[in-house]
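Follow-up to my post from last week.
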Amino acid sequence: MAKDKVALVPGLFTWPADKPRLIGSHCKKCGSYAFPKQAYCGNPDCGKDTANVEVVELSDKGKLYTWAVQVQSPPVPFKMEPFQPIPMGMVDLPEGLRVLSMLTTVEGVDFGMEVEMTTKKLFEDDKNEYLTWCFAPVKGSK
Amino acid sequence: MKSRQVAIVGMGLHPWGVWPDKSMAEMGTFAIQKALEDASLNWRQVDAMVAGAYLWMSQQAGVPGALMGTSITTLLGRTGIPCSNVINACATGENLLREACMTVASGDFDCVVAVGSDRSAGGFFRPQSQDIKFDYDYYRYVMTGETNPAYWAMEMRRRMHDVGTTEEDMAMVKVITSQGGQHNPNARYKRTFTKEQVLGSQMVCDPLRLFEICATSDGAAAVVVMPLDKALKQVKKPLLVEAATLGSASYGDPTIILTYLSSFPRPGVLPYSESRNAVRAAYKASGRKPEDINVVELPDNSCWHYFTYLDMIFDLEYGGSEKLFRKGYFNVPDGKVPVCPSGGFGAFGEATVAQGLWQVVEVGRQLRGEAGGGQITNNPKVGLAQSYGYAGNNGVAIISRAW
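User reply:
Got it. Predicted complex:
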């Protein structure tokens, strides 16, 4: 029987979903965005009223700002089995947020390249496969 | 320091390295004892102490690490003095100096010890809880695998793209700072490196290589401060604390600061704002300008930090530091303004809570002309130390000859 696929840390992206998206927050008053979602708007000049803040699903496409490869395995509590060097990057979303993410690959990537959100398996146990979010370069994009 | 001017009268270090059998309180006691000897003072003459609380509590040290100053009094001997414990990640050192100076400047006390002691040796830093709900450092780490060097590597990649930093520039940082490290008795790595050795070292986080990032180390540092008038009577070479400032980040900073998962860049807000805010405050408090600074100890956690901090400390355009660097401006020991003549983090490694004070001590040694074979050649009168803290904290100190 196929194992359940679950988010390792729930609440950071929509799951299960065909097109998963990061879950952030938006201030209805000043337009600020945050990821992960937070209780108050982070703008010091905006009112501190939790009612101003709504939970939103963020865009699943963005542009690559920079990237690197974590060659060695980070120590526990990080867990990836089997470990493979981790491509990661910073992605600019249309909302104006810049988010941190693993990437599927850095082969052929370039600054400003379009990337699209997907998921990636970190490890599994008897019951579940544990997932994180991940961005993948969109083929043919600059 | 508006009310009373404050000066450093004593400085002490416990050597940096890997010391698995020494408690942090033991190393801190050693550093304080050295600082007291340097000032010809004894522990009974100390009116108050500020101590760095140990950040990595879940791994080791527990309550004695968190209440570090209190633990240290059990070794130096309990004298009943006020003892505060300060936690501010890697900016703790300048924070300690600031609290000690404020305590003296206010007129509350005349002789205050600041001490930072730390056991950080053991590789990549990692989150300190498994609180899946509220520890954003924990879930950032397990979901992205972002170590500190991976963050630095992403920043370095972008800087290479934006301003044309070359692989050779990156390797030469270690070559130049190691010229100081070879002479420093308290350094962990007392050796020089060639460009080929750096470029031949293992890739840790592409594009950063092993010799382009710093180690994590154990060590301790302490200083003793007094009002300037009393300091001038106490020692031959007191060091005036012209500024000891802190900065936190500004809203709209484009940096995805370590421990966080995003930023919300706003027009006109520059990156690394906590560092810009701290250094701007230091220039304002001291009335100094970048051209007044003769020696710098900056947080060269990696070659990326080295260039980035030089841009900010000297108020250069983005990428301006590489241009001056290639001309030998920051060379050790004989540049116009030698940078990290101690050997820097490259030779010492990070000992988080202790390193800000250690940097102040190293600037002090240069100003006092006591750096021996590592003495810089520009007869420095004013120096600056800056530390970069986890999670958006920064500390800066400007000190000068007071004699």
